[in-house]
């Protein structure tokens, strides 16, 4: 097991704030593909521990911020359109320089802001598959070629084993999660703060999203959720890529939902039903009222499970 260590110092806590910013929701994809329409929102710096904050707003993927005398470590960067606004929100909770940015996965609502921070001299870290997809994105709808990320947005440090970053009184654990939401997922654990950030392989809003086009898989997502459950303690605050902050019981229920829907669909696939027929049977109906913001994500999820069970190639 390869462990890279960055040795730094001790921690301080700061304050919680609200910052008004223009916001644009970016589509999933590489950093260079971020876009969307602007609107005014409030980015809330939700203090989860003396020196740890979750930056949250409607439509914004959650950004983690560790503060202290050694500087700032961030988890995810938001969209390209929000890069400067996220940077301004970070300055509201710390006057120290931003030193590190960890990307949890490739989608533009998490990596689109990389360019802003890369140009500030922030060291960006990510899994090697994520870096490769930023440089050569998967095709978009209809096979349209993806736009490579700007040079400043590309991670400069990659890893395939776990990392530990010693900073601000934390032993930040950077933990690879393989072939789950994408093929470049990472979860980040802050033991002293009792916080884990999962990126999008766990979301507390909508049904799961197995992004097969970007290397995601059903088994990898189940393995990742099991690893997240094992890493969390009884009081751990689990911060998903989107949705409310939860505890390990909520992640366990999310994993169990995946397995229940899979087990409902599997006999239908074995009988040769089409994906349309499977969706028409409403295999998520028992869970729809329990899944916050379910919307059309149930049908998408059923399609992804169907493709996995059918053995369709990526």
Task: Kindly describe this structure.
By secondary structure, the chain is α/β, with parallel strands linked by helices. The chain has a single domain (5-248), classed as 4-Layer Sandwich (Metallo-beta-lactamase, Chain A). The protein has nine helices and 14 strands. The chain has helices at residues 83-93, 108-111, 114-119, 128-135, 218-231, 248-270, 275-280, 285-288, 297-310, and strands spanning 5-7, 18-24, 38-49, 52-57, 60-66, 72-75, 98-102, 123-127, 157-159, 163-167, 170-177, 185-190, 195-199, 237-240. The strands form two sheets. Strands 2-3-4-5-6-7-8-9 form an eight-stranded mixed sheet. Strands 1-10-11-12-13-14 form a six-stranded mixed sheet. The longest helix has 23 residues, at 248-270. Residues 1-38 have low confidence and may be disordered.
Which terms would index this structure?
314 residues, alpha/beta, Metallo-beta-lactamase, Chain A, eight-stranded mixed sheet, six-stranded mixed sheet, 14 strands, 29% helix
Helix percentage range: 25-40%
Shape summary: globular
Low-confidence stretches: 1-38
Q: Which CATH architecture would you pick?
A: 4-Layer Sandwich
Give the number of helices. 9
Largest sheet: 8 strands, mixed
User: What do we call the CATH topology?
Assistant: Metallo-beta-lactamase, Chain A
Q: How would you describe the oligomerization state of the chains in this entry?
A: single chain
Question: Could you give the count of β-strands?
Answer: 14
